[in-house]
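Query structure, 87 tokens:
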């Protein structure tokens, strides 16, 4: 069974709604919520969704902080292998 990782950063929201949507509309895949610091789990997923909201509680330059987080390096490598990323 293919699986989608819904990435949860500190301060993001809608990860539970996103998981429910994937589980409902793509039951053949299903989704798990994966915290930003669980990078060792990511290679086992077939696709990634970055949950909505404000990473790092919308602090100044939060997008830059999130973009440079180790989880994004892992997701970038997985995307280069052809795995889709949404968000």
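Result returned for the query:
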């Amino acid at each position: 069974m293919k699986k989608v990782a819904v990435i949860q950063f500190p301060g993001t929201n809608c990860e539970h709604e996103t998981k429910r949507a994937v589980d409902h509309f793509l039951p053949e895949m299903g989704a798990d919520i994966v915290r930003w610091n669980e990078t060792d789990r990511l290679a086992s997923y077939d696709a990634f969704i970055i949950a909505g909201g404000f990473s790092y509680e919308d602090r100044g330059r939060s997008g830059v902080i999130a973009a440079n987080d180790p989880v994004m390096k892992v997701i970038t490598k997985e995307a280069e292998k052809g795995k889709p990323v949404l968000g």
